[in-house]
Design goal:
Structural class: mainly alpha
Largest sheet: none
CATH architecture of one domain: Alpha Horseshoe
Distance between the termini: 33 Å
Strand content: under 5%
Shape: globular
Oligomer: single chain
CATH class of one domain: Mainly Alpha
Number of helices: 20
Number of strands: 0
CATH topology of one domain: Serine Threonine Protein Phosphatase 5, Tetratricopeptide repeat
Order of helices and strands: HHHHHHHHHHHHHHHHHHHH
């Protein structure tokens, strides 16, 4: 895709709609958003926050992924021919803290492109928007990540990060201005967290830990007030997944201490979800359930709630909380609760890697109950699902699960051994 020349027909909302074989009218019926609004959104026009949330909730994706972020100063004119007024910009769901071109969804990392007044993809001018240029490359890599194996992306991502850090070190504040320098630090923070995301998928947890730490450090040098707590949330989740619940809880406490009073519900909801995961790793079921209940309370829509702000644009809704409830229940071996939560969460899990990892967590619950046949079936489904993306983390997690099954005394375990041998070859 060539930036600046891509047609409006390739707007992300349109791409996702067609991927699900929906017409504009069909999407309107399913999402409860009017067809006229969908037409406007696909042409790059701003839409109101409540409508944007409905589309985000239907697809289970962030506003960035759906192409609904419209940069300040580049908003299309309204039907009356006048730009959107400043009050609407301030209250808009998609307003950005420092650089409108630097965007990301919560929890795990996919963020996409912004549109300009023409409705076409815009490439920022390099001399006026160096942070925007860095962010455009990062968003392109995130688009590729959905369909490209991590081993193929890690070297380009590391090179992109090295360039960003070199440029950041060389840019003189007097030349750029303090605001521009902070925006560049925010862009570099995003690159570092994306690199860490890839390293997690490669099961290189030590390198991922270092890059998440770097993303927090860069975020603290940047302007956006909510970026550092956001990056801390990613760091805390990695600590919980790596089996260090006390470190995860300490990072969560630090993130909460840096949240302002006007933090959006997604910030509180995600931190409660990750806290529940940490308590689960510490084998503290009661505290995990309390945190999950708090996350559900934060997910309840309230008219008085602060508007979402970058980078907390992706809603933490009931489906996302159910995903974490499934993870926790599975690790406690509660297959009934895990299956019930999965029924709510899975339809909204669009990421292949997240679906595969969730299947492995479900499989662990059945291992704990010694229901070998179901555990093997779920593990093989995870391998089949993630095989095109060559996810090393999925393979590693299935290998760990296989060790817990013990000797190959059943046909199901032997089938799993054969599948593991095929993907590891």
């Amino acid at each position: 895709m060539t930036m600046g020349t891509t047609s409006a027909a390739e707007h992300p909302l349109r791409v996702l709609r067609k991927h699900e074989h929906l017409s504009q009218r069909g999407l309107a019926a399913k999402s409860k958003v009017s067809r006229q609004t969908i037409v406007r959104a696909e042409r790059g026009h701003a839409i109101n926050s409540s409508t944007a949330r409905m589309l985000c909730n239907y697809f289970g994706r962030s506003a960035d992924e759906l192409g609904l972020v419209v940069r300040w100063g580049e908003q299309p004119e309204t039907e009356t021919g006048h730009p959107l007024n400043d009050g609407m910009k301030r209250r808009g769901f998609l307003s950005l803290a420092v650089a409108g071109s630097v965007t990301r969804s919560a929890d795990g990392g996919e963020s996409w492109l912004t549109t300009g007044a023409s409705g076409r993809w815009q490439t920022p001018a390099p001399r006026s928007d160096p942070a925007g240029l860095l962010a455009e490359v990062t968003r392109s890599y995130r688009l590729l990540e959905a369909t490209t194996p991590s081993p193929e992306l890690i070297s380009p991502a590391q090179g992109h990060l090295a360039l960003a850090r070199q440029r950041l070190a060389g840019w003189d504040a007097a030349e750029m201005g303090k605001a521009d320098a902070r925006a560049c630090a925010a862009a570099a923070s995003e690159i570092a967290s994306f690199t860490a995301w890839l390293q997690r998928d490669l099961n290189d947890l030590r390198s991922a830990w270092g890059h998440y730490h770097l993303s927090v450090e860069l975020a603290q040098r940047s302007g956006p007030p909510f970026l550092a707590p956001y990056q801390m949330a990613s760091l805390a989740r990695l600590a919980a997944e790596a089996g260090d619940p006390h470190q995860a809880l300490a990072v969560i406490d630090l993130a909460r201490s840096q949240l302002r009073a006007d933090a959006p519900p997604a910030a509180h909801g995600l931190l409660f979800c990750i806290e529940a995961l940490a308590h689960t790793q510490a084998d503290d079921r009661r505290s995990a359930l309390v945190a999950l209940d708090a996350a559900e309370q934060a997910a309840i829509p309230r008219a008085s709630a602060p508007d979402p702000v970058w980078p907390w644009l992706s809603p933490v809704d009931y489906a996302k909380v159910s995903h974490y409830r499934m993870l926790c229940a599975a690790r406690f071996g509660d297959t009934v609760a895990a299956e019930a939560a999965a029924a709510v969460a899975f339809p909204k899990l669009k990421s292949v890697k997240l679906r595969a990892r969730a299947l492995i967590d479900l499989a662990r619950a059945y291992v704990r109950r010694r229901e070998v046949e179901e555990a093997c079936r779920l593990a093989m489904s995870a391998l089949d699902l993630s095989r095109p993306l060559d996810s090393k983390q999925v393979i590693y997690q299935v290998m760990r699960l296989r060790r817990d099954l013990g000797p190959a005394r059943s046909a199901e375990i032997r089938d799993l051994d054969g599948r593991l041998a095929a993907v590891s070859a």
